[in-house]
Sequence to fold (287 residues):
Amino acid sequence: MIEEKLKHIGDNTSIQTKTPVSGGDINQAYYIQTGKQAYFIKVNRQAESGFFQVEANGLERIRSTQTIAVPEVYYFDQSSGDQEMTLIMEWIQGEKTATTEQQLGEQLASMHAAGGSGQYGLDQSTYVGKLHQPNGWYTDWADYFRECRLQPQFDIAVQLNRMNQNRRMKLEKLMDNLDKYLPKQPQVSLLHGDLWGGNWIAGQAGKPYLIDPSILYGDHLFELSFTEVFGGFSNTFYSQYQNVFPLEDYYEEIKPIYQLFYLLVHLNMFGEVYGGSVDRILKRYTS
Ligand code: ADP
Fold:
């Protein structure tokens, strides 16, 4: 019961409004207004234990960089048992203003430039969409990318029968040659990890907020490359980003390899409609 959980965080008032919020593809989401305040609430009936703890931890790590805003998390269920799991957070309401994308670019770049752990990866596994994302600490970024990013998606694609012979050979070849392309020791940045246009929103006075992260420590170019897969980020965003953290000149050369990870995730989540994009990238690096 949502009321019980709200009591748990000190809100004993009654719920005045509960409205579904669309936009996410994983959980059911609601706007809830009580006598005290407004909340954004996510509910999941099938999630594994710890599912929302991972999201809360990601938001907290981003918050701790003091560079870019995230909604405050008030409550999350740790363990599902037979019950649905709930995440309760601050409701963010606002409209984009003329400076929102400028702030988003500068603040994301500041988060990336702030550094973080000395190594690549993360100390806990996470989720990318609904898929399990294994992690670990690595001293070599290319090794992390091969072992924790490409290989797990390769394995899922094999299980789902989405890896035909040609795709399989090319992806194996690219994984073997990854060191030729990716930097071994790029600057370590905290990354949101799932930054498409739907994972940032504008709050009061147009202030940008990151939502729904899948964090890791890694090459900032990995984050930037995903922003370009589905669009939704303006030229202002990119130019302001570069004022704070310039993109290395090899960005264009390796961008498709970073995008390949997200396209494999989409191939695995949504099917062959993403197969052509995967194959075009594999062809570029293996022929
Ligand atoms: P899912 O985990 O299901 O993908 P999201 O976290 O992406 O869900 O949230 C779904 C939608 O709800 C977002 O696209 C956004 O528009 C809105 N939203 C997310 N967090 C908040 C918030 N804290 N306040 C207001 N709206 C939010």
